[in-house]
Amino acid sequence: MQPPPHPTTTIFRHASQVLTLAGSPYPRAGQAMSELGILADATIVVDDGRIAWIGAHAHLDPKPFRDTQEIDCRGKTLMPAFVDSHTHLVWGGDRKDELEMRLAGQDYEAILAAGGGILSSVRQTRAATEQDLVAQCRTRIERMRRMGTTTFEIKSGYGLDLDTEMRQLHAIRRLSKEGFRVRATCLAAHAVPQEARASNAARSDFVDVVAHEILPAVAKENLADYCDVFCDRGAFTFEESCRVLEAAQQLGFGIRVHAHEFGHTDGVKVATRYHAASADHLLYLNDGERASLREAEVVATLLPGTSLVLGKPFADGRALVDSGVAVAVATDCNPGSCGLENLALVLALACYGCRLSPAEAICATTHNAAASLGYAGEVGRLEVGMSGDILILDTADYRDLVYHAGSPLVQEVYASGARVR
Ligand code: NIG
Ligand code: FE
Q1: Is there a contact between 55 and 394 (Cβ–Cβ < 8 Å)?
Q2: pLDDT in the model for residue 63
Q3: DSSP for 16-41?
Q4: pLDDT (tens digit, 9 = 90+) per residue, 199-228?
Q5: Rounded Cα distance, 107 and 271, in Å
Q6: Alpha-carbon radius of gyration of the chain
Q7: Could you tell which of 87, 88, 236 is best to mutate to test the pocket of ligand 1, judged by most ligand atoms within 8 Å of the CB?
Q8: Tens digit of pLDDT for each residue in 242-262?
Q9: C-alpha torsion sign, points 261, 308, 144, 174
Q10: Residue 242: which residues within 8 A CB-CB, separation 6 or more?
Q11: Please, which pLDDT band fits residue 1 given cuts at 50, 70 and 90?
């Protein structure tokens, strides 16, 4: 993020609660997910975009800070801004017709198999200019920022050809140059494109194109931090996913995997084999798979908005936390399976659907999400030196985010110390 145009010092005074999440920069598992490092009657000083001081208000020595703007936070909660670690925010057109079809009883996977679903978004995204993609994505990001998210992971995956995948990633780069904090992920292996569905040979050729043409071109321009693959029923097999990720690893990308969204397939095996930073969705898991995620230190990213929208089961977040896996929660915002942009609402779904506690869900949408993106040194915790990405909640008790889910509790949003809402 750009620093504010005229660097100022902001003092957030006398907050009833400050959720610092102070502590380890690594993804947190088990009991550590509940430890929010709460300070009462506390104050934060943000200077030149970064946290310069944080502690009990009684200990604040205001003298070293000049030209300050003061915000009275009595009755409010301060917490780290949200980090949305799984989105597909760059797409052309929409699929509101499919939403109505699904609400009338049609099945998401059947719509995809018939050439709709992701393939419909591919057609619409291929037809869009980079300028259109940037403008539409900016609108979404700005809306999400107003609801408290200041850090984003954004995937490509609606091109499934070299030109369009590159155009999506260029759009993401443009937005990051505008000052949004973004990690980019190449998801060229999101679906088998229509033109590669005629034969097994064509399908295999497409996997080769992803591994040996698209990923090297993306690496050459340094357009993505991560490579993702959709390893699931109706998408890519274990063997195909490995071919893509083998190349990705050689090219130096971090790895993320869409896994176990529709069936009990091999996604976890893929994620652990390539030491993925994150395995995402995870609706169908057994104890052995939870143990292998824990041992391989893969963050489990839950996307309960998608379960809600598709009418699928919720991932068992309780079992993941209890078995010592570090859990993150994200929106999955995309044109088809989940258009939800409000991570505060999805946080509440992670409690009601995935059975996380409110404290665990806060950790999952801030620090753990940041850590899964390699941003743990910047955002997700409120500690001296961290970026001033802070929310003021209009409540003295953070549990209201779940208790009153959907209410407008995110009152003010700061990104790198600058107010964006
Ligand atoms: O995470 N599972 C694959 N990708 C998305 C869906 C994308 C779409 O429907 O356009 C997901 O749910
Ligand atoms: Fe997704």
Answers
A1: no
A2: 76
A3: EEEE---S-SSPPBGGGGG---EEEE
A4: 999 999 999 999 999 999 999 999 999 999
A5: 27
A6: 21
A7: 88
A8: 999 999 999 999 999 999 999
A9: positive
A10: 270, 273, 274
A11: low
* Single-letter amino acid, residue 47: D
Q: Which of 332, 333, 340 for a ligand 1 pocket mutation test, highest count of atoms within 8 Å of Cβ?
A: 332
Distance 71 CA to ligand 1 centre (A): 41
| Residues contacting ligand 1 via CB (< 6 Å) | 88, 117-118, 121, 230, 258, 261, 306, 332, 334-337
Query: Reading across the β-sheet that carries 299-302, which strands appear in turn?
Result: 82-84, 149-155, 181-189, 226-231, 254-259, 278-281, 299-302, 327-329
Q: For residue 6, is pLDDT > 70?
A: no
Give mean pLDDT, residues 149-175. Answer: 98
Buried b (16+ CB within 10 A) or exposed e, 229-265: bbbbebbbbeebbbbbbebbeebebbbbbbbbbbeeb
Which residues, in sequence order, are CB contacts of 163 under 8 Å at separation 6+? none
The mean pLDDT value for 1-23 works out to 83
Between CA 364 and CA 321 the distance in angstroms is 11
Q: Return the residue matching tokens 């107010």.
A: 419
Q: pTM to 2 decimals? A: 0.97
Spatial distance between the Cα atoms of 324 and 65, rounded to a whole number of angstroms: 42
Q: What are phi and psi of 71, to 5 degrees?
A: -125, 120
pLDDT, the chain, mean? 97
Taking phi first (over 0 means left), then psi (-120 to 50 degrees means alpha), and beta for anything else, what does residue 267 get? alpha
Query: Given a cut of 70, is residue 5 above it in pLDDT?
Result: no
Q: Quick one: which H or E segment has residue 370?
A: helix 367-372
What average pLDDT score do residues 158-175 get?
Answer: 98
Q: SS3 helix, strand, coil % of the chain, rounded to 5?
A: 40, 25, 40
Q: Is the pLDDT of residue 3 over 90?
A: no
Instruction: Give the Å distance between the CA of 327 and the centre of ligand 1.
Output: 20
Task: Name which of 64, 13, 114, 28 is nearest 371 in CA terms.
Answer: 28
Name the token pair of 388.
């001033």
Q: Over pLDDT 90: what percentage of the chain?
A: 96
